[in-house]
Amino acid sequence: MKTTNVSLVGVGGQGILLTSDILAKTAALAGLDVKKSEIHGMAQRGGSVISQVRFGEKVYSPIIPEGTSDLLVSFDRLEALRWRHLLAPEGRALINNMYLTPITVSSGQQPAVPDLAARLEAEYPQALYIDAMTLAKAVGNTRAMNMVFAGALSTLTPFGVEVWKQAMRERISAKLIDINIKAFDAGRNAVKG
Questions:
Q1: 2, 26, 175, 182: most buried, per Cβ within 10 A?
Q2: Which of residues 6 and 117 earns the better pLDDT score?
Q3: CATH homologous superfamily of 4-192
Q4: Using CA atoms, how far apart are residues 47 and 149, in angstroms rounded to an integer?
């Protein structure tokens, strides 16, 4: 089995690191070697966050070279554009249909990216989009948006649903697991349906 490279990107506060932890734990529970790295940047201020997960029979480094991510998982549309260089030519992109205005734009330090939708379409003609926030609201907790996204991501991995849910149970507190499983199922069903 070749090593699979997954880059998860977004902004601080979206639950990217928890999602990457659960992906890494899922791969480990499936018996694979796993390495994970993360860069927080100014995460607590809404800045870019990236976490990379690599899994396979034997993984030697946690760092994914540019242009070799099999999956680019973007929690925000603008971040998908920012991190496009990570995706392999034959890679797949899963993009949350959300746009968080960067602080530099809202404060007037930088202009907004013009034609974001058209640029995303040009860069990612085969991308899979999901409206994770709407689905999280529907299950009753917007903070579970990342688990909606994890459910969508699960359809693009070789791991069974029960392995994912076992990883979630090991990583998420018991009082929050039910809503997070509902969110996971909603994301998975939205992609499969």
A1: 26
A2: 6
A3: Pyruvate-ferredoxin oxidoreductase, PFOR, domain III (3.40.920.10)
A4: 19
